[in-house]
Design goal:
about 400 residues; alpha+beta; Alpha-Beta Plaits; 5-stranded mixed β-sheet; binds guanosine-5'-triphosphate; diguanylate cyclase activity; diguanylate cyclase; Rev_trsase/Diguanyl_cyclase; transmembrane
Length: about 400
């Protein structure tokens, strides 16, 4: 296939990648990695412009492939840099500067100047190493809802790496193969088509990563309370419904620890609303400390909270709630030179066979909580059914 046509097509694909990533960067209020991926598109475009100029002018000085190949290698590196930045790692452009200078300088080796095939064999390990570092990062992504979004880029990088190695291997075992500078031999045409495919799919794969990441962040924000980091009522509905269905299928006991800060209005009135916010975070942090890491924690509103506990009998549930109450009572909030004593009132309830919904149990836990308030606050009250079991335990 005509080399000039492929260079123009690759240049167009690189331009689309650069523009799409830049536009997505603006639309996503500056998501990490997109500018690096836009830069990758620009570097590939620049390498195509150099190649285009060489074909059109017919000039073959070694400086032309030196610059073109350095830009091309930099394009591959920038894809990894974007991924690193997206994952919160430094992009390492200092390393890129070193690699680009090395790639350019290698063109003045007599081996590289002897034949185009030699240059291809010389630069294949460098490009494959860059692709491999991207694959390694992608492969190590933890399992979870975001992982699938990284797979298209991983497959693309593996495919690209494989074709580079096959082409270099072929040249190594067929030393009589002759390639001309920016020629249209089958081996070069195949390589150019892979570059074209890479540029077309890389942009889409990177966009997919960002879009999925933002979708998950939005979903998390919609289910989380921003002050405490605890889940909100909406999340409670999803999670408790799922757990209640599990209980119905013969799973473990499902219980609620509902609690409310005592005389919280007085904290706000005496110390101000922002100290009130600090006090809420203080109480939730202590509750987290007293609970096990795997209980689901919810802020239901204002200074009302609930913990969804699975797999514990009434006696153990009472013990857990007492630990929370005790730690909060023993740990006043220090704010400057002020010490603010805090306590919570707690109610407990476990889902019963007659319950038609988890909300029945939460309602009972709420009733028990208000009984704690009526009986003087700073105490744990199991709802009557739980209390009966607790006596038996
Ligand atoms: N600082 C702060 N205060 C809040 C927040 N949400 C609710 N509140 C306040 O919490 C207080 C709750 O007051 P009450 O419902 O009267 O309860 P209380 O003073 O704790 O009294 P008892 O519950 O009966 O012990 C109100 O003053 C609300 O304004 C919040 O996010 N931050």
């Amino acid at each position: 296939m005509d080399a000039l046509t492929l260079i123009v097509a690759s240049g167009m694909a690189a331009t689309i990648m650069a523009a799409a990533m830049a536009m997505l960067y603006r639309a996503s209020s500056g998501a990490a990695g997109l500018l690096d991926w836009s830069l990758a598109g620009l570097l590939f475009l620049a390498s195509n412009i150099v190649a285009f100029g060489a074909v059109v002018s017919g000039r073959h000085e070694i400086l032309i492939p030196a610059v073109g190949n350095a830009l091309y290698v930099a394009g591959h590196f920038a894809i990894g840099a974007g991924l690193r930045r997206h994952l919160g790692l430094p992009p390492r452009y200092g390393v890129l500067a070193g690699i680009a200078v090395l790639v350019a300088a290698l063109h003045w080796l007599p081996f590289a100047q002897q034949a185009v095939a030699n240059r291809l064999m010389l630069f294949t390990p460098i490009i494959v190493a860059i692709n491999f570092s991207v694959v390694r990062l992608l492969w190590r992504m933890p399992a979870g809802p975001a992982r699938a979004a990284y797979m298209p880029l991983l497959c693309l990088e593996v495919l690209f790496m494989a074709q580079m190695l096959v082409r270099a291997g072929y040249l190594a075992i067929m030393p009589e193969t002759t390639l001309t500078f920016l020629g249209s031999q089958a081996l070069q045409t195949v390589g150019s088509l892979f570059v074209l495919l890479f540029l077309m799919v890389a942009g889409m794969s990177c966009a997919l990563i960002v879009i999925r990441h933002q979708e998950l962040a939005l979903r998390k924000a919609s289910l989380t309370d921003s002050l405490t980091g605890w889940l909100n009522r909406r999340a409670l509905h999803d999670l408790a419904s799922r757990e209640f269905a599990r209980v119905g299928r013969g799973g473990h006991a499902l219980s609620f620890i509902a609690f409310d800060i005592d005389h919280f209005k007085a904290v706000n009135d005496r110390h101000g609303h922002s100290t009130g916010d600090i006090a809420i975070r203080h109480v939730t942090a202590l509750a987290e400390q007293a609970l096990r890491g795997y209980d689901a924690l919810f802020r239901l509103g204002g200074e009302e909270f609930a913990v969804l506990v699975t797999g514990h009998g009434p006696g153990e549930l009472h013990g857990i709630a007492e630990r929370v109450r005790d730690l909060i009572e023993r740990t006043p909030l220090y704010c400057g030179d002020k010490s603010i004593a805090m306590t919570v009132s707690i109610g407990l309830a476990t889902c019963a066979p007659a319950d038609t919904s988890w909300e029945d149990a939460l309602r009972r836990a709420d009733g028990a909580l208000y009984q704690s308030k009526r009986e003087g606050r700073n105490r744990v009250t199991p709802c009557p059914m739980v209390r009966l079991h607790a006596v038996a335990a």
